[in-house]
Amino acid sequence: MRPVGWEALGQWGADAVRVEPLSGGVANDVWTVRVDGRLAVARLGSRGDADLAWETGLLVHLDRAGFTVPAPIPTTDGRLFAGGLVVMPYLDGGPPETPSDWQRVAGTVQELHRLTRNWPQRPGWRSSTDLLHTETGTRIDLNRMPAEAVARCRAAWARLSGRPTCVVHGDLNPGNIRMTADRVALIDWDESHADVPDLDLALPFNAAALDDATHDTAAQASAAWQAAVCWDDDYSRRRLTEVRPA
């Protein structure tokens, strides 16, 4: 039987060791680790093999295309994950702060969308427009939300119907962005899935330079998505207030 949980870290070498926990993880246990003498980040969660294969395969694809992402560090026998554990390089940098920082982020996100047009859906997930006709998908369960809240969310997502899809990062808060003078790196791909690109483009300072109508559609759809994914806590209820009544 292959090791599971943190015992699986040994699959990255006899000297692989946990260093200290990292804050910010909700669905996962995340630590800095040392693998082959290098500082790295390890994430342990409950996602199944098909889900992890989708995410790690996406990161390998983006890395090979020159995109700065935490591409998985393989085990000693070449696997990209083991026992629910993924090990990735540690990426330094700071969060975006200024309008020009966010414009750089927008360009990076739009390149992500270009590189992943018509990407297959993450196993078990649903896109925002899928949720017009179904109630559940991974962390979303519309049955847990009040009927009026569901109607508001679906009205926002309905405005995206018929648009092309790609991979969206799904959680572009400043803590998931690592900037240096010469590159923008996106980390924490746990919420990435195939969807309409608008969900990633309601950025601060309207950094993606959307016209008023497109920005409104993106902002409404994104707020509805975050409300549904995080329901039921203070953050999700606050995001729901940003979604206009149906």
From TrEMBL:
Pfam families attached to this UniProt entry: APH (PF01636)
Keywords associated with the record: Kinase, Transferase
UniProt GO MF annotations: kinase activity
Protein name, as recorded: Ser/Thr protein kinase RdoA involved in Cpx stress response, MazF antagonist
Classification of source organism: Bacteria, Bacillati, Actinomycetota, Actinomycetes, Micromonosporales
Organism encoding this protein: Actinoplanes philippinensis
Superkingdom of this protein's organism: Bacteria
Domain Aminoglycoside phosphotransferase as annotated: residue spans: 19-239
